[in-house]
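Question (not urgent): is this output format expected?
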Amino acid sequence: MALAGAPQAQIPVSGTLTALVTRLDGVPSNAAGAALTIGAKNATTTGYVSAYPAGGTAYSLSLLSYVPGQAARDLCLGASRRSEA
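Got this back:
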């Protein structure tokens, strides 16, 4: 099942995708975190995917690495917003 609003399209190198997770399938707007399946297919080069809350700083940590000719996916568990602490 694809996330509502998430495009099924190729994202360019260094590109970003913002997906609204709250208010979907009963996820409250004040949810502390989310579990997402991150995937990549039809890659034309090697690369990686990272995920972070909207408005946050991009992480250099790779959640998923991919190579041409192979589909890849992984489960991501993370905070849905930055901590106020």
